[in-house]
Amino acid sequence: MAIALTSDAHKLLGGNRSQWGVRLGGPALAMAGIAASQLSGPTLCPVRLCTGYACPGCGVTRAVGAAVRGDLGLSFRFHPLALLIAIQLLLAWAFMAFGRPSAAWQRRLPMLIMLNAVALIAVWAVRWRLGLLEFVVAN
Predict the structure, then answer these.
(1) How many domains does the chain have?
(2) How far apart are CA 16 and CA 64, in angstroms?
(3) Which of 63, 43, 40 is CA-nearest to residue 52?
(4) Contact, 67 vs 84, CB < 8 A?
């Protein structure tokens, strides 16, 4: 029985146990880094650096960091779509690390990317119109 479980785990991880760290460590290190980061820091957004205005994705990293630290209210203030984007990125990583998605999902991926872009722009427009982007730029 233990041999079957080990064999299944071995298959799941691509047959090479030394890749556990590579496949599982990347997202863990990314989340730890985001969680440990300060809420304010240098601006990395090229749109904001060049124009002074927040782009549709501004605040996502800080929102994920706040969510990882357990502050969902602050996370939502930084960016309402951050958790959805983080979940999608984790799923994409899982497909890349542990196997290819089905052909149907591969055909749907461009539509999913387009829907995300439209959602980001729509949320940005609403936040801009309501004056909610000031919080992201100020922090």
Answers:
(1) 1
(2) 31
(3) 43
(4) no
DSSP class of 16: -
Classify each residue of 28-44 as buried b or exposed e, where b means 16 or more C-beta atoms within 10 Å of its C-beta.
eeebeebeeeeeeeeee
Q: What residue numbers bound the domain in which 120 lies?
A: 2-138
122 is written with which tokens?
A: 């729509």
Q: How many helices (H) and strands (E) does the chain have?
A: 8, 0
Binned at pLDDT 50, 70 and 90, residue 2 comes out as very low
Written as six digits, the tokens of 63 are 């929102």
Residue 19, φ and ψ in degrees, nearest 5 = -85, 0
Q: Model confidence over 12-49: pLDDT tens digits?
A: 545 555 565 666 666 666 666 666 665 556 777 888 88
